[in-house]
C-alpha cells in the first residue's frame, strides 16, 4: 500500500540495508538472533509508547512528516491492528519569533484603527507603541487561549484571532506579510497548546472505512484513509513522496 525505499521497508535495518526476511534467514545463528531481539525490542517499545494491546504485532515502520499546523518529522509504525505516528516537538528555543508593524482593530467594523509594533515570541503575541518602546508592552495575547485563527477575507490582508475572552483583528501591509504572520502564529498556537515533548497518534485499523488515492500534490502519491470513531468521522491523508518520505496530515 506504501511506496518506500528498500532501506526503509523493514522494522529494523543493518549497515548493509538488508531486508528483514533476508536477515532472519541468514546462515549465521548469532546474527539472526541479534536481529530478532532488535525487532522484538522495538515492538515492545512501540506497544509501550502507544499503549497497544499485548497481541498487537509490529509489521513495518516508515520515516515520515506529519502536517498539521506545523510540519513535524517523525515515524509511522504499522501494526496488525493500528497505524501509529510519533514525532518530537521542537524545543522552546526553536519556537516562532517574528516582529513588525501591523494595524489592529478592536472590532472589524470600527472606524478606528491603530498601528502598533508587534512581537511574537514563543507562545506570546505582544504589541507596543513603536519598536523603540519595547520595554513597555501595551498588551499581549497568550496563544494557549486561542480558539481559532483564520485569514479574515472580508478585509484586505486580515488575520482574525479568537480567544476565550475576545477577538482580535490584525491587518498586514501585504499578502506576503499576511501569510508570514499567519504561519508563525499558527505555529505558536500549535506549540503552545501541545506543551509536551512529543505527539503520538494511534489509529485503529478496525475503524478504517475507506482508502482512496487522490491527487493532492503533483509531487507526491497520496493515500487518503477515512476512519470512523463512533459518531465522529475523520479523514487521514498519507502522501508518499518521490523521496520515499510519507507525509501524514489530517483535517
From TrEMBL:
Pfam families: GRAM, PH. SUPFAM superfamilies: PH domain-like. Residues 10-27 have a biased composition (Low complexity). Residues 1-33 are annotated as: Disordered. Gene3D superfamilies: Pleckstrin-homology domain (PH domain)/Phosphotyrosine-binding domain (PTB). Residues 95-190 form the PH domain. It comes from the Eukaryota. This is PH-domain-containing protein. It comes from Rhizopus microsporus.
Amino acid at each position: 500500500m506504501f511506496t518506500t525505499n528498500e532501506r526503509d521497508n523493514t522494522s529494523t535495518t543493518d549497515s548493509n540495508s538488508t531486508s528483514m526476511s533476508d536477515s532472519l534467514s541468514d546462515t549465521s545463528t548469532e546474527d539472526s538472533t541479534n536481529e530478532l531481539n532488535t525487532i522484538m525490542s522495538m515492538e515492545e517499545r512501540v506497544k509501550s509508547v502507544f499503549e497497544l494491546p499485548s497481541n498487537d504485532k509490529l509489521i513495518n515502520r516508515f520515516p515520515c512528516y506529519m502536517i498539521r499546523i506545523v510540519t513535524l518529522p517523525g515515524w509511522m509504525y504499522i501494526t496488525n491492528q493500528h497505524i501509529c505516528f510519533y514525532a518530537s516537538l521542537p524545543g522552546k528555543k526553536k519556537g516562532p519569533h517574528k516582529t513588525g508593524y501591523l494595524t489592529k482593530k478592536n472590532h472589524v467594523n470600527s472606524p478606528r484603527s491603530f498601528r502598533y509594533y508587534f512581537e511574537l515570541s514563543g507562545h506570546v503575541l505582544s504589541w507596543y507603541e513603536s519598536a523603540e518602546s519595547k520595554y513597555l508592552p501595551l498588551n499581549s495575547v497568550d496563544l494557549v487561549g486561542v480558539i481559532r485563527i483564520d485569514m479574515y477575507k472580508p478585509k484586505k490582508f486580515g488575520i482574525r484571532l479568537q480567544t476565550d475572552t475576545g477577538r482580535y483583528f490584525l491587518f498586514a501591509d501585504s499578502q506576503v506579510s499576511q501569510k508570514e504572520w499567519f504561519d508563525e502564529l499558527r505555529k505558536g498556537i500549535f506549540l503552545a497548546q501541545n506543551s509536551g515533548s512529543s505527539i503520538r497518534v494511534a489509529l485503529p485499523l478496525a475503524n478504517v472505512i475507506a482508502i482512496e488515492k487522490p491527487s493532492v500534490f503533483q509531487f507526491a502519491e497520496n493515500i487518503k484513509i477515512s476512519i470512523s470513531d463512533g459518531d465522529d468521522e475523520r479523514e487521514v491523508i498519507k502522501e508518499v513522496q518521490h523521496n520515499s518520505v510519507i507525509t501524514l496530515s489530517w483535517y
